[in-house]
Write a sequence for this structure.
């Protein structure tokens, strides 16, 4: 049973109204909405043990909850995100006249430690991309997915939700619908286009044929990348796939995250002299400070190379 199912119906209604507000006003993705829902359900469940309710808490109670999360050894960044969720929630409740005072108003966010994204080097990426067995349909699909991710820097959610109408093989571009339903055009390199074309011509038509009893029918799945049953891929399935190929390529899973190829795309472009603003645009970052973290990764790699190869380092 999920945490959301364990709280009272009245608390569920309060949370869902807030979630509906976020969806209608801000157009947030389902993944982001789920994160808000989970944060608030966890808080409501903790309040339930304290015989408190969402709309009756004061600042001291919220401080105690944040301290509880610290005690659970949550990272400062996670606690800061949690406080951000609560701030937004109580700002909405105040606006709707469900409370008379915002209990988060005087709380300060903890300064988060900004960890550098893990990025594989270019040889590791080559090994990872070469790991799928492209002699079968699933291997060809997987190679096309990995190549496209590394060529474009897409988020995993953007990749698995990519529709056939969003890709132009002839023009070599894809129309990406990112966070907040913002659209951007991203060019695709020739190597990735070639693998994508092979997948389109050879593997995808076969994967779209699924058996129903003794008859074969064509699925109408509009997603570019489909499962062996002809249905849409999930993030979990893709993450499992990446880990499996990492093992084949001799890459430690400690170096992996769902956005490994996105990080590599950014870092390697900067290493080869790409303009930061261009990388920001390709990644779909609204704030360049989010993109700038990759410059630290590139700078660190240059320092490491200097230490390794300079005679007076």
């Amino acid at each position: 049973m999920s945490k959301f199912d364990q709280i009272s119906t009245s608390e569920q209604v309060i949370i869902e109204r807030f979630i509906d507000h976020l969806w209608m006003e801000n157009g947030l993705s389902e993944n982001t909405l789920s994160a808000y829902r989970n944060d608030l359900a966890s808080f409501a469940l903790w309040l339930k043990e304290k015989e408190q309710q969402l709309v009756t808490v004061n600042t001291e109670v919220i401080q105690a909850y944040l301290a509880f999360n610290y005690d659970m050894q949550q990272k400062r960044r996670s606690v800061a995100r949690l406080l951000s969720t609560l701030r937004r929630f109580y700002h909405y409740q105040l606006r709707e006249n469900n409370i008379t005072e915002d209990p988060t108003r005087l709380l300060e966010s903890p300064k988060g430690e900004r960890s550098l994204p893990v990025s594989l080097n270019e040889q590791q990426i080559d090994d990872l991309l070469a790991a799928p067995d492209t002699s079968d349909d699933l291997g060809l699909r997987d190679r096309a997915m990995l190549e496209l991710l590394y060529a474009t820097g897409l988020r995993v959610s953007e990749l698995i939700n990519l529709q056939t109408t969003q890709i132009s093989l002839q023009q070599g571009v894809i129309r990406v619908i990112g966070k907040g339903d913002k659209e951007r055009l991203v060019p695709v390199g020739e190597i990735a286009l070639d693998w994508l074309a092979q997948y389109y011509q050879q593997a995808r038509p076969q994967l779209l044929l699924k058996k129903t009893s003794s008859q074969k029918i064509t699925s109408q799945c509009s997603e570019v990348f489909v499962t062996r049953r002809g249905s849409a891929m999930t993030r979990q399935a893709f993450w499992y796939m990446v880990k499996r190929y990492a093992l084949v390529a001799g890459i430690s899973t400690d170096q992996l995250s769902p956005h490994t190829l996105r990080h590599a795309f950014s870092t390697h472009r900067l290493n080869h002299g790409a303009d930061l603003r261009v990388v920001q645009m390709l990644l779909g970052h609204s704030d360049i400070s989010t993109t700038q973290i990759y410059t630290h990764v590139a700078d660190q790699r240059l320092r490491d190379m200097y230490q390794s190869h300079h005679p007076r380092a």
Observations:
- Residues 211-215, 297-303, 305-313 have pLDDT under 50 and may be disordered.
- Residues 180 and 296 are 27 Å apart (CA to CA).
- The radius of gyration is 23 Å.
- The chain has 13 helices and five strands.
